[in-house]
Design a protein that fits this description.
The chain is of the alpha/beta class and 321 residues long. Helices cover 32% and strands 20% of the residues.
Length: 321
């Protein structure tokens, strides 16, 4: 998420929540709408919630402030990344608060159709990469160079990897170059999807508990690094354009300043809500603080947001219009 996507628990909306999951066999989000979207005269905002916990943290805090400090009713809709752009363009949601880079959608909707407006930096830089647990990197220091991965492929074999080393990914819906990377770098590995961020975290925590080897697609910011220390595997350096052809990718993932986007009409007429969402910008540390409360301490997103808001008034008051 992100060039990246993930799936965990949906943030609960205030008065009403619409849970619309996209994916194979799922309903098309773009043909459905929040009951509050485009409700004339209503002081309501509809936020798109990506499925990974960092994105949920953004929305939880924005929702809490919109509801408790600015008097709005907030509806949330969970939807995968690319369909979220379609929904935003059509006004079925008002804002996306964490985008990891979708140049095709950006050109289509922001530059050409002008139905989506830029909302500014989130303040967090995202990065996808391949990681091994730090305890494994200490045992085999050269394992952190991709050129040596074939040497260690047998360490990562699983029942699902077909005799090859397993490269664990999250959901097939995430933006991932991993299948192309494995092919183009001639690695003796098989990409195996855990199915969701939550399932991937469960597997990594179990591997770590047993001190077993694993190689995984993962991303920062992410709260799990505090619980399971991991070391990045160095892939061939990223250069502008090296990932332009999805089939020929043979380079690392970029570091991406995460962006916010607003529906163009909402950006013009959304009043204090639109102004607040433009100003909303925080740090990786703040996002991880809320994410840890949600995913590890099992607080509800709204309880976690309330706790964060109570302890950081000097931060969020700067976002108020």
């Amino acid at each position: 998420m992100r060039k990246l996507k993930r799936r965990t628990a949906l943030i609960a909306a205030g008065a009403a929540t619409v849970s619309l999951l996209t994916g194979c066999g799922a309903a098309d989000m773009t043909k459905q709408a929040s009951p509050f979207a485009n409700a004339r005269g209503s002081k309501t905002v509809t936020l798109s919630v990506q499925s990974w916990v960092g994105a949920q943290s953004n929305v939880a805090v924005a929702q809490y402030i919109l509801e408790h400090k600015l008097g709005y009713r907030v509806d949330t809709v969970q939807v995968d990344e690319v369909p979220a752009w379609d929904a935003l363009s059509q006004g079925r949601v008002d804002a996306i608060l964490e985008d990891w880079g979708h140049p095709d959608q950006e050109k289509r909707y922001v530059e050409d159709k002008k139905t989506i407006a830029r909302g500014g930096d989130l303040g967090v830089t995202g990065h996808i990469g391949w990681f091994v647990p730090t305890y494994l990197a200490k045992q085999h220091p050269d394992i952190t160079d991709w050129k040596n991965l074939n040497k260690y492929a047998s360490l990562f074999r699983t029942a699902e990897s077909g005799g090859k080393g397993q490269l664990m990914d999250g959901s097939p819906s995430y933006v991932t170059n991993d299948k192309a990377l494995v092919k183009n770098l001639k690695l003796d590995y098989q990409v195996v999807f855990a199915g969701s961020e939550a399932a991937q975290i469960t597997q990594m925590k179990q591997f770590a508990k047993e001190k077993k080897p694993f190689l995984t697609y993962w991303y920062a910011p992410q709260w799990l690094f505090k619980k399971v220390p991991m070391t990045e595997v160095k892939l061939p350096p990223y250069k502008d354009g090296c990932d332009a052809d999805a089939a020929k990718v043979a380079c690392a993932y970029p570091h991406t300043p995460l962006q916010k986007y607003l529906n163009a009409d909402f950006a013009k007429s959304g009043g204090k809500a639109a102004a607040f969402l433009r100003k909303f910008s925080w740090t990786t540390e703040y996002q991880n603080e809320v994410s840890l409360m949600i995913a590890d301490q099992k607080l509800s997103p709204q309880d976690a947001a309330g706790k964060w808001v109570d302890s950081h008034p000097d931060v969020w008051k700067r976002w108020l219009p």
